[in-house]
Structure formats: structure tokens, C-alpha cells
Write a structure and sequence with these properties.
The protein is α/β, with parallel strands linked by helices and 386 residues long. It contains 20 helices and five strands.
């Protein structure tokens, strides 16, 4: 009777080892369940390394042979990653979910299963190890969500941390994270809307926007940018005109100001970057912005508009029309840009003492706020004084 125990034991052992949920490759400890990998990654604050392989795949076998010969690499995987092996024979659902096109496919995922990096084919042991160390060193950047807590919320710290993450996230990850913070409610929702509003999809922004909660002009302008970028609305002037009416109603701005901002932003910040605008359009829309909506909080747009006017507009009367409004803005907000604009406006009218004083005020404000500052009268002296 005993002579049959050994064969039966080995049959049972081999059967267990061949089950997909307990397969191992090389000296790396692999699991085979994505759900378990995500759970462990969240608990252990690790990333997930995924080897999507096939039994018949030569490069897959080559990679595992290289890893077996590299104890340090295996130890690093085991210590710093949750390692997931997907055999195409047993997990077609994974292949469909992640659109796997070849073998091996190697991936790094975060704890939510979002793809941080993927490559099809075996890139070689040295490259694989270098990427493994790189992603582990940056793993805190790839956590989908910073801990959400109402206690001790620091908006500046949150913005800084989330900004770093956004530079690493794919578009899909970025959108998911923004959505999570919006759904989390205040204070996260307000921080995202105020600081990252232009990245929020317009229908979502529309859902959460409340001008009583978020009265800042900059937030309203991010709302406009979100509209322009949604489904490439910036290509269609009829959509912009229609959208201007609705956004004006929601933000409390006049339809004229909304339309002026969106058309100017479209020309300068979008179409100019892809070479689909012209000098005439830039001049027209720059003049409109400076005359109709100089209080914009998009200082980059305002700066571009002023440079365009300096280079294109010689009519002294146009600058005189801007004087009172920019003097008022400079009194309300001593930002160096307003004083710098005034220096141009004064110089164009021959008010040299006023121009010099405006430059001095701009320089002082920039110094106090640790900003670099190069006056228009230095950069474009010839064009302004001619």
C-alpha cells in the first residue's frame, strides 16, 4: 500500500504547482490575480510589475533565464514590487482589458491598476532593471490619490504635490484623479477647480461650478478654457458664441467679456501654437482684449496681447483710450504687468516722466515678489518710441 503514496503525493504536488494561481517564474515571487495584486500594492504602498507571457514565447523564456542569473534583480523585484504574472492561456480577460498585442508585454501599474509604463517585447535585462529602479524611486508620484482627509488640509501643499503628479500621469490617469478629488467634495473640490480647472472636462466643470463658492475671476476663465478644449470647441465660432451666452449666465460676466476672452485665448494660446492663425487676427483680438477685458487674470494672455499691439499698432489714440482703465487696474492690483503696460501707454503719448515712474513701480513690485522683470521699454524701445 505504501508504494502508491509517493506517486500520488507527487501527482498532487505537481498538479498544485501547475495551477495558474500558484505559478512562479525564476526567483521572482509572482502572483496571478490582478485583484490580489492591487490589494497588496495598496496595503504595501508599492507598484505592480506585470509580466504578460505565453508558454510558447521564446523572448519570455529568455527574460526569465536572464532574471534567474541575476539574483540582485530578483531580490529587488521581490522587495520593492508586487509581481504579477499573466499567462495568456489562463487570463483572456486581462488581455482584453489592457489590449495586449504581443508577448511578453511588461508593465508597471499603480495600485488602481492604471498603466504607468508598458512595452511589448523583451528590452533586455539591463534596460528592464533600470526601469524597475526608476519607477520604484518615483513610486510616490504614481499613487492615484493623496490621502483624502478634512483634517489639516493645506491647499498650497496639496497643489504642489498634485502638480508634481500631473507631470507623470497619463491623460487617463490625470482625468481619473481629478474626478476623484471633485467627488471627494470640499476642500479638495475647490482646490482642483481653482488651480486645475482648465484640465477638468467641461461637462464635469459645469456640474460642479458655483460662482458663489468660487468667485475668483481666474476660476471663471479656467471654466472658459475647459469649454474651448472640450471636443475641440475652439474650432467652431458658432459653438463659442453659443457657449459664451451660457458661461456668461453662470459666471456673472458679460457675454462680451466672455466672448472676447475665449476668442483671444483661442487665437493666442491654441491656434498660434499650431500655426493656424495670422497676424491680422492676432492684432484684432489683442486690441479687443486690451479694450474690452483688460482685467483678465490670465497674465500670459494679457502680455501676449500687449506685445502684439506694441509691434502692430502705431496709433497714439488707441493707447490713450487704454490709459484710464489701466491706471484703475494698477491702483486695485499693483502687479508689475499693469505698471509696465502703463509705461508703454505713457511713452506712446510722450509722457516720459510718467513712463519712467511706471517702470520704477513695476520693478519694485517684481523685486518684492521675487519675480524677474524686463520692461517693455527695454525690450521694445524702438517700436514704442518711434
Amino acid at each position: 500500500m505504501k508504494r502508491y503514496l509517493i506517486p500520488v503525493f507527487y501527482i498532487l504536488l505537481i498538479g498544485t504547482l501547475l495551477k495558474p494561481e500558484t505559478m512562479f517564474g525564476g526567483d521572482i515571487r509572482f502572483i496571478t490575480s490582478l485583484a490580489d495584486a492591487k490589494k497588496q500594492a495598496a496595503e504595501q504602498r508599492k507598484l505592480i510589475f506585470v509580466d504578460v507571457m505565453a508558454d510558447w514565447c521564446g523572448p519570455c523564456k529568455k527574460m526569465m533565464a536572464d532574471l534567474r542569473a541575476n539574483d540582485a534583480a530578483c531580490d529587488f523585484f521581490n522587495q520593492h514590487y508586487v509581481n504579477l504574472k499573466i499567462n495568456e492561456k489562463y487570463n483572456k480577460a486581462f488581455l482584453n482589458e489592457y489590449n495586449i498585442q504581443g508577448f511578453p508585454t511588461l508593465m508597471f501599474l499603480n495600485a488602481d491598476g492604471e498603466v504607468l509604463w508598458s512595452v511589448t517585447g523583451y528590452p533586455g535585462i539591463d534596460y528592464l532593471v533600470s526601469m524597475t529602479r526608476k519607477f520604484d524611486g518615483e513610486k510616490d508620484l504614481y499613487r492615484s490619490v493623496v490621502d483624502i482627509s478634512d483634517e489639516g488640509f493645506d491647499e498650497v501643499q496639496f497643489v504642489n504635490e498634485f502638480s508634481k503628479k500631473l507631470t507623470q500621469f497619463s491623460t487617463e490617469m490625470r482625468n481619473k484623479n481629478i474626478q476623484k478629488y471633485l467627488e471627494a467634495g470640499e476642500p479638495y473640490r475647490g482646490a482642483v477647480i481653482r488651480h486645475f480647472g482648465s484640465l477638468v472636462s467641461y461637462p464635469i466643470f459645469y456640474r460642479f461650478y458655483d460662482r458663489d463658492k468660487y468667485p475668483e475671476l481666474h476660476t471663471a476663465e479656467q471654466f472658459m478654457v475647459s469649454f474651448l478644449m472640450y471636443e475641440s470647441n475652439f474650432y467652431a465660432n458658432d459653438k463659442i458664441r453659443k457657449g459664451s451666452k451660457e458661461i456668461a449666465r453662470l459666471t456673472g460676466l458679460t457675454e462680451s467679456k466672455v466672448n472676447t476672452f475665449m476668442i483671444c485665448y483661442k487665437e493666442f494660446a491654441i491656434l498660434r501654437q499650431i500655426g493656424l492663425t495670422n497676424d491680422h487676427n492676432l492684432e484684432v483680438f489683442a486690441k479687443n482684449l486690451l479694450k474690452n477685458y483688460p482685467e483678465t487674470r490670465d497674465f500670459n494672455l494679457l502680455y501676449d496681447a500687449m506685445v502684439t499691439v506694441i509691434l502692430k499698432v502705431r496709433d497714439t489714440a488707441f493707447y490713450a483710450e487704454l490709459e484710464a482703465e489701466f491706471e484703475n487696474l494698477a491702483q486695485q492690483n499693483p502687479h508689475c504687468l499693469y505698471h509696465d503696460f502703463l509705461s508703454v501707454i505713457y511713452a506712446k503719448q510722450g509722457k516720459n516722466e510718467e513712463a519712467a515712474l511706471a517702470v520704477s513701480k513695476a520693478s519694485k513690485w517684481a523685486g518684492e515678489n521675487h519675480m524677474s522683470y524686463s520692461p517693455f521699454l527695454t525690450q521694445y524701445r524702438k517700436e514704442i518710441l518711434e
